[in-house]
Amino acid sequence: MNRPRPSLEGVTARFDDYRGGVPPLRLDDPYRIWQAQQIEEVRTVVDQAEAESRAGAWVAGYIAYEAAPAFDQRLVVREAKSELPLVWFAAFRSAAAHPAGGGEYYRLDSLRPEIGQEEYSRRIETIRDLIRVGDTYQTNFTFRLRGRYEGDLRSLYADLGAAQRGGYHALLTGGRHTVVSASPELFFSWDGRRIESRPMKGTVPRGRWEQEDSRYRQRLLTSAKDRAENVMIVDLLRNDLGRVARFGSVGVERLFEVERYETVWQMTSTVAAQTRPEVGLFDILAAMFPCGSVTGAPKVRTMEIIRDLEVSPRGVYCGAIGLLAPPGSGRPRAEFSVAIRTLVADQVGGEVEYGVGGGVVYESTPNREYQEAMVKARFLSRRHRPLALLETMKWEPDQGIWLRERHLNRLRSSARFLGIPVREVEIAAILDGLEGAIPLRVRLLVGKDGNPSLETTPLGSNRAEPVRLAIDNCPLDRSDYLRYHKTTRREPYEEAAARHPGADDVVLVNDRGEAVETTIANLAVRCSDRWVTPPIGSGCLPGTYREELLDTGLLVEGELLVADLVEAEEVAVFNSVQGWRPARLL
Known about the structure:
Anthranilate synthase; D-amino Acid Aminotransferase, Chain A, domain 1; 3 domains; eight-stranded mixed β-sheet
C-alpha cells in the first residue's frame, strides 16, 4: 500500500543535557523522514536511519513501545494506535548549539488519569497474585493521563528543562505529533565499541525542606524494596547486553546511585559492555528493546501481563527517543533515552497524553504505587517562572544586620535544596559594605545562577496599634515545597492580601483547618503561660526570629486551629525586620 510522503514542514529536533555534560543541540533543515506503521517495516526504517547517519547526516527520532515485536517476536503488546508511527526518524543537514527558547504562551489543562485508584488497586493485586505463583518477579504497570493544550509546546519544553534539569531532554516537532520529553534515564549510549546503559528503578518524593528531603533520600538508599527492584533490572540489563557483548565484558560500574530531580529522588545503576565488531543498531535494539526498567522481569512473560492489564497502548512512552550522530561529530554513534516523563501532543485534536507508572513487586502496596505514579506527573502542573532566593533583614548603623548568621544559614539550606550556588565571599562583601545613618530594610537576592544583589529602603517605625488580621479561607497547599523557602515567588501571599483589603495582614490556613502564618510574618498565640507557634509541617516559613525565640525557650511549637486563634488570650505576629507585634482579629 502506497502512503503519502511525510511532510518536512516544521520538522525540527533538539536535545538538551541540563546537567551540563554536553552542549545543547538543535537540528534543522530536514531532508528525509522514515516512518514505520507496520511491524514488518521497522527493521528497514532502523537500518536506513543508521546508514544515513553513517553517511554523514544527523538523524533523530523515536521508537514506540509497541514496536517491540519487530525486535523479538516473543514480545507481545497491545494493538498500537493507528495514527502514531511505530518508528519515526528524520535526517537533518544542520546542527547547532542553540539553547532552548521559551516565553511564548501555552496552557496545559489538568491531566485526567484513564484509570481510577480503585480499579488501579485491583490490577496491582492481580500482579501480586501473579508474583506469588512465580509468573513474574516484577511488573512495570503504567497508565495514561490525558488533557488538552493550546499554545507553543516549545515553551513547555523550555519550562520542563528549567524545572527538571535531567540529562536526556528531547523535543521532536513536525507532522501530526510533537514529542516533549524530560527523560532523566539513559537507555543506551554506544560509540560503536563500548555500550553503556543506566536503568532507573526506585523512587521517593522530594521533601519540602532540606532536613525532610535528606530523610527521604536516605529512605530510598536503604529501602530493601527499591534496592531489590533495582538489582532485578540491573540483572535483566546485564543479560540483554550479553547478547551483543564481547565475552566477559559485561559489568556493573555503579550500583544504587541516587539522583535529585524537582519532585522525586531516583535510584540508578550503570551497566556497560564492549560490543562485538559485527553488531549494528538493530542488533542492539533486538537485544535490549524495550528497556527492562519499563517492563519488569522476566521480560517476555511480564510483557504479556502488561498487555493484559494495562488500559491502553503506551505509544512513545516507555519506548526510546534517540540521536544518531555522524562520524567525527564528537557525540556517541547512537544515544537513546528511555521515553519516560514524556508527553505526546496531537496537533490535530489539541490533545496531550502523558504516561506514568512504576515497578510492582510483591511488597508493593496499591496506595503507595498510585501515589508514586501521580508524583511523577506533578511537575507538569508547575509552570516554571524565574526564581531567586530572598532574605529580608534589618540593618542598624551601630549593630549591623540583626540575626545575620541565621539569615545566611537559612539561605544556605534553601540553596542546597534547590541546587543554587552560594557565593559566600561576594555576599559577605556586599553585606559588609552597607552604611548609613538610619536603620534600613535590606533585601538580599540570590538568583538561580548564584549571582547576589542587594536592595535597601529606609526602615520605618511600627504602629502602636495591634496589627489587624483577617483570616483567609482559601487553604494553602502544604505539599508545595516553595512554602518552606523564602523566594521571590510571592503570588499566593499577594493574592491572599488582595482578598482582604481592609486588613493590615492576613492569616493563612491549611487544608486541615490550622492557622499557619500571615503573608509577611510568623504567628503566635498565648495559651496560659506560654506562647505557641505552628510547626513547620503545618506549612509555614522557617522564620529566623522564630528560630531565635524557639532556641531561647520563649516559644514552643504546637498545631493551632482557627478556633484556637479566635479563643486565644493574646495573638502576636513577628519577623526579623519588624520584631514582635501584638495583633487582633477583625
